[in-house]
Prior knowledge:
The chain is 41% helix and 10% strand. It is an alpha+beta fold. The protein has two domains: 7-37, no CATH class; 48-112, no CATH class. The strands form two sheets. Strands 1-2 form a two-stranded antiparallel sheet. A two-stranded antiparallel sheet has the order 3-4. β1 and β2 (17-18) form a beta hairpin. It starts with 6 loop residues before the first strand and ends with a helix.
Amino acid sequence: MPFKFKKPCAYQGCPKLTKEVYCDEHKHLNAKQYDSYKRDPEHDKKYGSKWRKTRSLYVRHYPLCEMCLKVGKFVPVEEVHHIVPLSQGGSNDFSNLMSLCQSCHTKLHYELGDRK
Length: 116
């Protein structure tokens, strides 16, 4: 296997050479910067550890896309959709959740008009 040459760290102004995108010093700084500038600060409040536990439990009970099952296709779940969004007063109860594949989840949001 050919040897890969080191390249400059992608962090602006860093002269260090690395085999990856960022040097060891800047890997964690880049992740911290991403979290503080690009991620919605409300994200962890709505989708914290309780949501991850609820989601994994729901996926265990409903492992296939519910919309695909209606037409006889067996597609594994990729997304868990809130029928009534949390921003509109919905909850993480099983009665407000729906397991979907990525395709059906995108299609559903296009039909609802909240994605372009």
